[in-house]
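This section describes the prediction task in plain terms. A model, or a person checking by hand, is given the sequence of a single protein chain and must write out its three-dimensional structure as a string of tokens. No templates, partner chains or ligands are provided. The sample shown here is typical of the held-out split.
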Amino acid sequence: MPPEYDTIPHRRFNLLTGEWVLVSPQRTRRPWQGQTEATEAPPVAAYDPTCYLCPGNERAAGARNPEYSQPFVFTNDFPALLPDLPRLPDRPGPLLQAQAEPGVCRVVCYSPRHDLSFGQMPPQQAVAVIDTWRREYVELGALPWINAVQIFENRGTAMGCSNPHPHGQIWANATVPTIPAREGERQEDFFRERGKCLLCASLAEELADPVRVVMANNHFVVLVPFWAVWPFETLLLPRRHDSRITGLGPEEKEALAEIMIRLNVCYDNLFATVFPYSMGIHQQPTDGCEHPEWHWHVHYYPPLLRSAAVRKHMVGYEMMAMPQRDLTAERCAERLRAVPVDRHFRERGEQR
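The expected answer:
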């Protein structure tokens, strides 16, 4: 990258959404006197009798978890979407639109161990989680009224997670939500105009000059996107073109588990803390149609900026104009590459 990109304010274009992000590298020198976050201590016990996600415990709505030893899935006790909905009354005006949105919300407990992060799981446990995601995508996507299945995880209180037990969620919608729909449109336009996959072309360009590549194995690449908004945002891409995770072979599943574990260790070790993030898998709609333009991928959006106590706030200009960041994608990738991932910081006895 030309050195000017590290010193001059500039815009970068997001290929997947068609939006712009303002990059202001000169602002990294400003002092910070704003809000600081409380550092999260990791759970210390493998089982917590007060945790509503641990095996055998009663959940908030009264159901009791089985004594599970593998990933455990249940319908969310407080779902954002419901399967059976009445028809909404007519809209209140010609410009006001509303429609009922049926769906299904499920919770996936990754492990019976309350004290494990994804980065500390044995590889076979991570593979079991991936198999669970694949099975749920197929099962929910097979429902004739479900057209999108969103797999995601919120980790840490800074990202709204209310329970440290390792878990994620799956929301299945009757309609394709805004962000996956926008990504699908961008990929479809590129495929129609150029006859090839947008993310395959982007990945080839990134590998030709790997300044933003954080880690890779034979099947997957993790990089900081050129257009990243969050400070240490990453994009996990499969090298082989496929539209959904159901096509993963045994070796690919093991490679995906391996690189997700390494990335989680990298995040946690960066500031020696329980690193918060929102993670989501984007893949083709489940509308029964073929989508050769779709290249499935995983987004990680972590909020921490300077340390375990200082996060990025999306306010002011970001809310009123466009996203903005200070650290360039290249410098963030450089910092992530420098983080040792051979051992998790908890194993080294570190905590900030």
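For orientation: The CA atoms of residues 163 and 349 lie 23 Å apart.
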